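User: Can you help me understand a structure? I only have the sequence.
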Amino acid sequence: MPRYALNIKGLPYKTEWLSFTGVEPKMKELGLAAQGGPLLYTIPTIYDPNNDKIVTESFAIAKYLDQAYPDTPRLVMPGAAGFQEAYLEKVVSPLLNMIIPSIAMPVFEECCIDDADRAYVRDTREKWFGRKFEDMEWKREAMTAASEAFKVALDAIATRLLTSTLR
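Assistant: Let's start by predicting it. Here is the structure, written out as tokens:
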């Protein structure tokens, strides 16, 4: 997503592609601390040479780019950051957590560059989702539960919108 953000803003950039196993060493090289959660080091990350600033995580990058480059098209509308964060937390994340185990993870494993990457993806994602790849398949009961959880998340968004100062 940061590449889209940089394109929208018309800012020049250079992409550095990393293997899955190359992310942690690169982040340590940049001096970034480990994050909480299932993946200690993650991408996307940008380095802004104009301000000697490193920013990690898509939404944080969007907010930073708006702050650092105010004369370019905005990515986060004034007053809407809370809504956008809630949307990411309550809609996008649950949706991805519902889809990734069953569809994306087997694809990731097949697309890995080498055996080390493949082993890394399998190990980290199986720990993340608490089950083996072979058990990550669409099951009616799991989908029903996931759909209900997603409905709860959407209801939370609706409630937030109804009580928002943006109305």
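Now, to help you interpret it: The radius of gyration is 18 Å. Helices lie at 2-9, 23-29, 58-68, 81-111, 115-129, 140-162. Let me know which part you'd like to focus on.
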